[in-house]
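User: Continuing from earlier, I have the next pair ready.

Assistant: Great, send them over.

User: Here they are, in order.

Assistant: Folding the first of the pair now:
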Amino acid sequence: MTGIVSRLILAVVTIASVPAIWMLLLFLQWETRWTRDQDLAIALANLVTALLLIGAWVLIWRREIRWSPRRSALTIVATVGSLMLAGGFGFWIGEATRESEAGHIFGGIVWALLWLAATAVIWRETASERIERMQRLGVHGVTCPTCGYNLTGMKEARCPECGATFTLEQLFASVAESSV
């Protein structure tokens, strides 16, 4: 199993386990009667679950991300921004339903969705990062087998220079031949 496949499986398991962890925390709180305030119990379950999600997500993807100061700052901004948006949404739901617990629950769900979506965008590999990664692997670009035009970054297997079209297998074979 490749590293990326195992990271994807871990990511799916992490996302799927978040609701179970949240419910377990609430169950433990209600069983131990640490607090009788349901709002506080749900808020604490949200906080602990969020911290676990952030920690797991960063651990899973940390080696795949090129952590520039800009990307780190954007991640922090996304965390704070998603908390503010989700908090506002949760407050609105709580007021609309007259159930503050519903606001906390929906706010926690919205926060997780917003934060995960934001990290997917912020942590995405840029074109220049992909080219650098490919060069480190010894692949200096995919070139047209017919005319030699550099096809790196193209969205289709057709050469804009000579118009020739190829299957992915043909392009991979030409890359393998050129690296020998």
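And the other member of the pair:
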Amino acid sequence: MMAELRVLLAEDHAVVREGTREILAQGAGIVVVGEAADGAEAVALAERLRPDVVLLDLSLPVLNGIEATRRIRAHPRPPHVLILSAYDDEDYVVAAVEAGASGYLLKTVHADDVLAAIRAVARGEIVLHPTVAHQLVARAAHGGAPDTLTARELEVLRLAARGNRTREIAAQLALSSRTIEAHFTSIFNKLGVSTRAEAIVHAASRGWVSLEREPPSA
């Protein structure tokens, strides 16, 4: 049997928190291990409970969601962070990803989308709500491919933006997983970022990659 996904829920509005808890209870293999009503409590519980995923609102009292994400991701063996926010401003998205978030959803999404996103970020994937993804792509006024990245690095980054993991990229390019990781290290150094999520958002905001996911195979 698959191990349960342990989720920490951070939301300051009690009614919203209760509703979200009910949504998570519908997800097979997902268990809520703790709840926080402010950012500081979320940071403390993430360290103590060691969840797999923190589902976090941006507008938290005491410590806002961006700073809470940054501190949570600074923990040893940190959990993945999925933002569930009412704000669709691209600057919030970029700030959240730069802080270490693996996903950003709007509170208008359906329950199934939240459950799918939790499972996706737990697998190491990047999840962006279509609205904010399109906004990032629309920022591609700079256009063109980056001079700093090689054709192979750009290809690796484009495949990652479509939701492919290291071994899947390696299979598609007929390369080893170690070579793909080396390409990512080079990409991070050239773009001045430290995570795949940051690299993808950086590239998408400049029109270098598309955030459209590949349709699932039949």
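Worth noting for the second one:
DSSP finds ten helices and six strands in the chain. The chain has a mean pLDDT of 86.
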